[in-house]
Amino acid sequence: MRSNLGFFSDEKFRSIFFQTLVVGLFALGLFFVITTTSYNLEKRNIATGWSFLQNPAGFDISFSPFLEFKSTDTHLKVYFVGVLNTLLVSVTGCIAATILGFILGIVRLSSNWLLSRLVYIYVEFSRNVPLLLQIILWYSILIQLPRVKQSLQVLDVFYISNRGLYSPRPIFESGFSYVSIAIVLALISSFLINRWAKKRQDKTGQQFPVFSSSIGLIFIVPLILFFILGSPLSFEHPELKGFNFKGGLVIRPEFIAMFLALSIYTAAFISEIVRAGIMSVSKGQREASAAIGLKQTWIMRLIIIPQALRVIVPPLTSQYLNLTKNSSLGIAVGYADLVHGFGGISLNQTGQAIECMAIVMATYLSISLTISFFMNIYNRSIQFKEK
Amino acid sequence: MKKLLSIFAVVAFAFSAHAGTLDDVKNRGFLKCGVTTGLAGFAAPDDSGEWAGLDADMCRAVAVAVFGDRSKVEFITTTGKSRFPTLASGEVDMLARNTTWTISRDVNLGFEFVGVNFYDGQGFMVPSALGVSSATELDGATVCIQTGTTTELNLADFFRLNGISYEALPIETNDEGKENLFAGRCDVYTTDASGLSSTRAAASNPDKWVVLPEIISKEPLGPLVRHGDHQWGDVVRWSLNAMIIAEELGITSENVDAQTSSNVPEVLRLLGVEGNYGEMLELSNDWAYQIIKQIGNYSESYEANVGPDTPLEIARGLNALWTQGGILYAPPFR
């Protein structure tokens, strides 16, 4: 039966019609937002454009471990300092959260009642208390540490105060580059040994002590070279001069607070993901591997984890994305990340709110997409490959 | 396309434009005034929870000018960073938030500074135990600094000029600055000298802190409104000027009633006995009378909030009338 709606009853036409309608409305909405914004900016005499990026910032950023920053540098450099600081806390946070999360997830499944309960309490506490509060909590604890003149001294070379953790800074002298080259060569050769050993084991069943030989290559060979070259490495020790320690390496309490809060918070989620992943591997797998006489640690490493990873990696990717985006809370403790430095101070000193926010958003988007891209590649590499 | 654009412009206009801030305020029935998150002497809740201070009085003076009632004002707290977007978006009608008048804020941000209610300058405060007597001795110190302020830029300039180094610890609010300074996370706190006096007064033992003698910048603090609404700008400007002129003419909240039968022509014009200056501003003719009656003149507000008898102990200095050695000066009321 044909309805009297004419060609509207044609499914193909209808789907094209509605899709065009939706896209059209979206474009219209976007157009409206843009025209309204530019109209209002003009009306309020707010100048727009990107030229402010080349203007000198006029303020100082003290936390910039990778780039030297002076007040005469441009807002563009403020941006780069911010990106690097965001990446610093995100990357270190992701690594720490992953390690901690894996350990906790496995411990949670342990048959030891006390251990498993303790992890349970940890997980429920840290994932149910808002992250912002945890950041502020850590910071409040850290600034109650002794003042800089009464710093705690650890092992004669580390100093802890509410200005941060000071440690000696390594100074590489001329011969040290040979040691670095040796380390790189050792890494490459142990990677090749690993591949060769695997192939040989597949073919002949003979095993090769890959782990101990790699350790020997990576640590002992460069170490011998280091002493032959006459120890081309010295340390610059921090010294209390005037108001602060001079020299040495320093880790600021703002960074430590962010790092601890982000990794501890995210590790709670990761441990649950790891637990779910391990539990998704059927009990039969474990029993079968025990039956053929594999050691407990081997069962975990060779049988359970590779299968669990297929379940773990996709949600793990989201946790990495969350951690990176959560690092924007650094503003609460004055951590000079992208949002605080460029999206905060530069925005405020120049008044270019829309431009600054657009750049900050585009940057977070790019970082997140990059993480997703690499995690997707990794995810594909661990998927079950049918032969 | 052009027609479509103009339609959008009209719709956009309807979303953004006001009939004028003065009419908006009158229709709403109260004034929305942006103040600090709490800076004793300028704007901070007092023991009874009422906002008090020099800036709070500025807000109340405008409320009195419009409504004849000092209570018709809602105080909205803003940080150094949020104040400008808050004003630009129309969430507040005016800012009285110890904000420095600079060319870029006046021109590029699209605001209008209507006057100066406090002449200030940037200073440094350190614990007296440090034994520092001059800001030039601060090489290597950690400095707490409120982000998004002119003081942040002055600080960088001062240290660069003197060829000494420092570590900046960026903070958002005065309270955060206090917390970090008192915990020793930073050695020095720098902001407007008046703000330092206010912070020092709030310390458990004010004698443990010294404000260094250097004043490294000009910080004329004043109320501001959005650029382009001149009628509203005039109301705020003359509310401030009325308080200054009242001090010049010796009119106080106590003698204002007696002054209505004065024989000085400018007094009569100010109090609305002669002329129609209130009407020109689209206010009632006794608006200035009400400001002086309910708030007081500039001197009364100053002495009550920041003067030598308050915990802040700030002498009049630059803020004295031009006839008494200061630079406080209002155009004639005629």
Shape category of chain B: globular
N-to-C order of helices and strands of chain B: HHEEEHEHEHEEEEHEHEHEEEHHHHHH
Number of domains of chain B: 2
Instruction: Specify the number of helices of chain B.
Output: 14
CATH architecture of the domain at 75-147 and 251-382 in chain A: Orthogonal Bundle
Query: How are the strands ordered across the major sheet of chain B?
Result: 10-9-11-8-12
Per the CATH scheme, the topology name of the largest domain in chain B is D-Maltodextrin-Binding Protein, domain 2
Average the pLDDT over all residues of chain A and give the rounded result: 88
From the structure above, extract its key features.
heterodimer, A: 387 residues, alpha+beta, MetI-like fold, two-stranded antiparallel sheet, 8 strands, globular, B: 334 residues, alpha/beta, D-Maltodextrin-Binding Protein, domain 2, 2 domains, 5-stranded mixed sheet, 14 helices
Question: How do the strands and helices of this protein lay out in sequence?
Answer:
The complex is a heterodimer of chains A (387) and B (334).
Chain A (H helix, E strand, L loop, with lengths): L10 H33 L31 H34 L4 H16 L2 H12 L9 E3 L3 E4 L2 E4 L1 E4 L3 H29 L5 H19 L4 E4 L2 E3 L2 E3 L2 E3 L1 H28 L2 H9 L4 H31 L11 H13 L2 H30 L5
Antiparallel strand pairs in A: 1-2, 2-3, 3-8, 4-5, 6-7
Helix pairs in contact in A: 2-3, 2-7, 2-9, 2-10, 3-7, 4-7, 5-6, 7-9, 8-9, 9-11, 10-11
Chain B lengths: L1 H15 L4 H8 L2 E5 L8 E2 L5 E2 L1 H14 L5 E5 L5 H6 L5 E2 L7 H5 L3 E3 L4 E3 L1 E6 L13 E6 L3 H12 L4 E6 L2 H10 L4 E5 H10 L6 E3 L7 E3 L2 E3 L3 H19 L7 H4 L5 H6 L6 H4 L6 H8 L3 H8 L29
Parallel strand pairs in B: 1-4, 1-5, 9-10, 9-11
Antiparallel strand pairs in B: 2-3, 6-14, 7-13, 8-11, 8-12
